[in-house]
Amino acid sequence: MRMKMRNRQQKSSALCCNAGSRCSLPLVIWSLVGCVLVIHLYSVVRYKDRGATTQVRLTRRTVTRELEEVEEENFQIPPPRGKRSPRAVKRRGPRKQPTAIDEFLDEGSDLRPFFFPDRRSAIDPTKEGNDSMFFYPARMWLDMDGNPIQAHGGGVLFDEKSQTYYWYGENKDGETYHAHKKGAARVDIIGVSCYSSKDLWTWKNEGVVLPGEETNITHDLHRSNVLERPKVLYNDRTGQYIMWMHVDDVNYTKASVGVAIADSPTGPFEYLYSKQPHGFDSRDMTVFKDDDGKAYLVYSSEDNSELHIGPLTDDYLDVTRVMRRILVGQHREAPALFKYEGTYYMITSGCSGWAPNRALAHAAESIMGPWETMENPCIGGNKIFRMTTFFSQSTFVLPLPGLPGSYIFMADRWNPPELKDSRYVWLPLTVGGVADEPLEYNFGFPLWSRVSIYWHKRWRLPEGWRTAYT
Ligand SMILES: *[C@@H]1O[C@H](CO)[C@@H](O)[C@H](O)[C@H]1NC(C)=O
Ligand SMILES: *[C@@H]1O[C@H](CO)[C@@H](O)[C@H](O)[C@H]1NC(C)=O
Ligand SMILES: *[C@@H]1O[C@H](CO)[C@@H](O)[C@H](O)[C@H]1NC(C)=O
Known about the structure:
- It is a single chain.
- The chain has helices spanning 2-16, 25-46, 51-64, 86-92, 100-105, 112-115, 383-387, and strands at 152-159, 164-171, 177-178, 185-186, 191-197, 204-211, 226-235, 240-248, 256-262, 270-275, 285-289, 295-301, 306-311, 324-326, 332-340, 343-350, 360-364, 372-373, 378-379, 393-399, 406-413, 423-434, 449-454.
- It is α+β, with helices and mostly antiparallel strands.
- The chain folds into two domains: 2-49; 111-454, Glycosyl hydrolase domain, family 43 (Tachylectin-2, Chain A).
- A hairpin with a 2-residue loop joins β15 and β16.
- α1 packs across α2.
- Bound molecules: 2-acetamido-2-deoxy-beta-D-glucopyranose (3 copies).
- Residues 216, 218-219 line the site of one 2-acetamido-2-deoxy-beta-D-glucopyranose.
């Protein structure tokens, strides 16, 4: 509550003089003082009306306190060993001290079971027990048939009609190989999997809802190509489910988006076409549906050096001609968007192939920008965890309807030697308090709320996450 008011004051203060550098310093200071006083009075007057809202916020804070506890994680990088896998020797030579990321990428590392715990510790919804409803980031996660969930680079759609969550992602349940010497590790296209759930923990396999193409080599989805980061939106006007995805060739030179449609969330999806949106290369991407029903495509472009954002047509089947370049020169990928109290937020990763790197949070008043970069949202774990997004990469941020300001951060812990055994890192994300790094153009006052992703070895959703307080 207090944090909330402080934040509001700061936002308004900055608005008092947004001409920035051209204001004289005394004028700026007195304007700020004036603003703060006016807003303080306003807050006092408004306090009574806000009693009910305060109650909701307090309830929310109590409920989510557990999620926001800072949990440390320790692990030791083992000393260099005599034996290394040939690939590791090639990568760093025999002498150098391994970094945590080297260890993470090394199939022969002693830390392997720490990063990729084996099936004995799998999250298994078919087993009743103390672990029921608990998320364990990076453990194997089984569906209701007892098979590992195959929904990588995914996103979740909440279907109002069936009051069900649908998780779409890449089915990578094939052999990992390199198409040629310089090619990245890959798995042939199998298709887009779909899983359904009411509680976000027990997932039923709904099958491959958009299959890859087996025989037609000229087809975008021929198994030898690339299909990544599928995301599905429901269009209220047409009653159709529209899937957007990154479509590419084996060398990532096609750099396009693909579109598919279905009448039901579980498909089958009909593949329509691919294109380079606005005539630009497009690799990692996501789509976002705003409260007003307008949807947007966000994609990494200009060789991943910047992001582009633009509205979709009303039927969500294409982009319009409107596009803005954002985070120019910042080299970000894996975008995941969400909105809280009228402000847009985005989590992105850096570009380092399958290797993990540091996440950043961004914020904007208008979805079309300007977007400002805040800080690394990761909290807890340890320094290496925070610098590697807990050894994972963002893919989606899922709102929890009963807990405004609380979300599930969904990420992939890629396993390049064995991509089908990549894991899911789901963690609580909250928006609240003030950003801890001052930004440009605002006199050192943070404009935005802080976005925080909390590390937990084991956690579960608090009561009341399902339905909005009224
Ligand atoms: C479940 O929790 C109870 C009480 O804490 C404990 O006695 C029991 O051993 C636990 N069972 C498992 C399978 O961990
Ligand atoms: C193969 O795919 C291309 C591109 O989608 C399509 O134009 C063509 O008709 C397909 N050929 C067959 C035999 O299905
Ligand atoms: C991908 O690149 C490799 C090596 O440069 C080349 O041999 C191969 O033909 C390319 N494949 C496609 C589909 O572009």
